[in-house]
Specification:
The chain is mainly α. Helices cover 85% and strands 0% of the residues. The protein has 5 helices and no strands. The chain is elongated, with a radius of gyration of 29 Å.
Length: 171
């Protein structure tokens, strides 16, 4: 009887972990999707796929290899990994390889710069938001220092601003 309860608890724990993992993956997917949309990186991914496939088709025809091997070779060459498990025998095939390598290096550069830009832009947004809050609070402190000269509407505005800042902090 106790063994059945232990298995059920273990099963529930595993289900909880899987559910948590799915939630994290969905959140990560949404952030990546937003970054891709924002930087128009999706066009680069489409172009990359087309280049890899065209390279594979050309190599499969030039080098008399299966399309599966050609796709593998094209992808490995494009990503500049170059295992060397598939060797080209024609000069025209080598020219195709050079183009794939150049495009691959460019793709890696664009990917790296896109990720860096996303990180930098997020940091700047947070900094700007923090700076705005700090400036607002400093302005309110200045106004409170001159409390005697404030009108009722200015006091109401300060109250509303403080209430808004407090509610944003809770989020």
């Amino acid at each position: 009887l106790n063994i059945g309860v232990t298995i059920d608890i273990k099963l529930l724990l595993k289900l909880f972990k899987v559910t948590l993992l799915i939630i994290l993956v969905i959140k990560f997917k949404n952030k990546i999707k937003e970054a891709v949309r924002l930087n128009k990186f999706n066009y680069m991914l489409i172009l990359t796929t087309i280049i890899i496939i065209i390279g594979a088709v050309i190599i499969s025809l030039l080098e008399n290899m299966s399309f599966a091997d050609a796709i593998w070779w094209s992808f490995v060459t494009f990503t500049t990994v170059g295992y060397g498990d598939v060797l080209l025998t024609t000069n025209l095939g080598r020219v195709v390889a050079i183009f794939l390598m150049v495009f691959g290096i460019g793709f890696i550069g664009v990917t790296t710069s896109t990720i860096a830009a996303y990180i930098i832009n997020n940091d700047e947004k947070k900094k700007r938001k923090k700076d705005f809050k700090t400036e607002t609070i400093d302005f309110i402190k200045y106004k409170i220092d001159n409390l005697d000269s404030l009108s009722d509407s200015e006091l109401d505005n300060i109250y509303k601003t403080l209430k808004t800042l407090k509610s944003e902090k809770k989020k």
